[in-house]
Recover the amino acids of this structure.
């Protein structure tokens, strides 16, 4: 994971992102006999922090996807807030089932039932 984050291509693709690698303190072996899984502490541009635990079988790609998804959510939240909208956006229940212009209904719904 660390090697992928430090690649020149990764840094060039997002100059706003900075990567700082540090080893986090782990408790002494006598205090906790179970080994602790590795974790990634991410601080996003808005100051939010998230600890991502690398569970058994987790991949660097999966962790990357998780970080990117959270980043997109933060970006979306910021766009709404910059536009003067409240966050989170609450969509009334009755609007969830409404059709939208430009979206075709499913063909099965178009056909009358015999």
């Amino acid at each position: 994971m660390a090697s992928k984050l430090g690649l020149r291509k990764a840094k060039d693709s997002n100059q706003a992102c900075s990567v700082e690698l540090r080893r986090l303190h782990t408790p002494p072996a006598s205090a906790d006999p179970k080994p602790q899984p590795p974790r990634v502490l991410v601080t996003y541009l808005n100051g939010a922090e998230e600890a991502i635990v690398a569970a058994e079988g987790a991949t660097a790609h999966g962790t990357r996807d998780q970080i990117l998804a959270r980043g997109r959510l933060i970006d979306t939240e910021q766009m709404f807030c910059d536009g003067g909208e409240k966050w989170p956006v609450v969509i009334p229940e009755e609007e969830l089932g409404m059709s939208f212009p430009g979206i075709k209904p499913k063909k099965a719904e178009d056909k009358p039932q015999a």
Q: What stands out?
A: Helices lie at 2-5, 8-13, 60-82, 93-96, 107-110. The longest strand covers residues 39-43.
